[in-house]
């Protein structure tokens, strides 16, 4: 079975994974959160520099962890030597092509192209969002979880860069049913966190604070609720939140962080659920799925489980926590299916990043 090196650098995580067929045998994530936190969001130039500095080390570590170089004295080898040895063991290099931050994507793509040319490997270009979707198919070294996901399915993909409802006709064949018209769900959480003077990324901070908060502390809208589409809008929600707290003294905000977080988070999640339900009613599907950074949130996970029960449909979400946020294992999973369909990059030289790549 093909062995694949997968690379992901679309935002602020430098990631590499090694696949043995559809199984992940190594997964390395070098997070840059510490570098961006003080700016309250991802700074593209800083991300580019960090990806450039880290990509070699991350790939070398993935090769070391994969077990493919067992029995070699790796401790004395340089990063380049480990990469050279590792490259002999793999067949394909897969890379995230977009959507994402252009200059961040460029680092992964250029490195992947350079290696593919030097080591004569086939290449596969992967859509980052398809990566998130197929993270529900990602298997560990033992082949777990074993899932028999019946298609067509309906998947909610929610992260800092996108929020979409997608019909999966079969693996590799998708139809976008609804998407955000402005901010992504994670972006809305990040911006609300910033308004409250909390850290970045906002999603996890808000989740923690919300645990002890009242969910109806202030009145927030569910944008587009009565519109006959499955599209989302989160910027109005953020604006409404902003106008309600903008004149509050700092102490009043900090005293009410739990309630504000719980109320904002609930409004975002209710919006997601309202349109998900509409999409289920309008599309005959056999399974429901969810993925993306925001799915790390336990409140959203339990709301979705309850929703699935109402419709008596199975719901799948990534089991392993790392699969929710950005990682290269999901990119490797897409590459596994593309390799089966022989969808390789035809002309490596002309492969380029696509910051706005559609599904
Ligand atoms: O998928 P991801 O790692 O990167 C993108 O492709 O955007 O998603 C990052 C987003 C951020 O907006 C972050 O605030 C959100 O996911 N996030 C969460 C949680 N963990 C990460 N949102 C809510 N609850 C969480 N526990
Ligand atoms: Zn992502």
Description:
The protein is of the alpha/beta class. It folds into two domains: 3-145 and 322-350, 2-Layer Sandwich (Nucleotidyltransferase, domain 5), CATH 3.30.420.40; 153-318, ATPase, nucleotide binding domain (Nucleotidyltransferase, domain 5), CATH 3.30.420.40. The protein is 42% helix and 18% strand. It has helices at residues 33-36, 44-66, 79-87, 102-118, 128-134, 185-195, 202-210, 235-245, 250-255, 257-282, 298-311, 329-340; strands spanning 3-8, 13-20, 23-31, 92-98, 122-127, 153-158, 163-170, 173-179, 287-291, 315-316. Strands 3-2-1-4-5 form a five-stranded mixed beta sheet, with helices on both faces. Strand 6 and strand 7 form a beta hairpin. Helix 6 (185-195) crosses helix 7 (202-210), helix 6 (185-195) runs antiparallel to helix 10 and helix 10 (257-282) runs parallel beside helix 11. Bound molecules: 5'-O-[(R)-(carboxyoxy)(hydroxy)phosphoryl]adenosine and zinc ion. The site of 5'-O-[(R)-(carboxyoxy)(hydroxy)phosphoryl]adenosine has 20 residues, from helix 6 and helix 7.
List the helices and strands and how they pair.
Elements: E1 3-8, E2 13-20, E3 23-31, H1 33-36, H2 44-66, H3 79-87, E4 92-98, H4 102-118, E5 122-127, H5 128-134, E6 153-158, E7 163-170, E8 173-179, H6 185-195, H7 202-210, H8 235-245, H9 250-255, H10 257-282, E9 287-291, H11 298-311, E10 315-316, H12 329-340
Parallel strand pairs: 1-4, 4-5, 6-9, 9-10
Antiparallel strand pairs: 1-2, 2-3, 6-7, 7-8
In a nutshell, what does this entry contain?
The protein is an alpha/beta fold and 359 residues long.
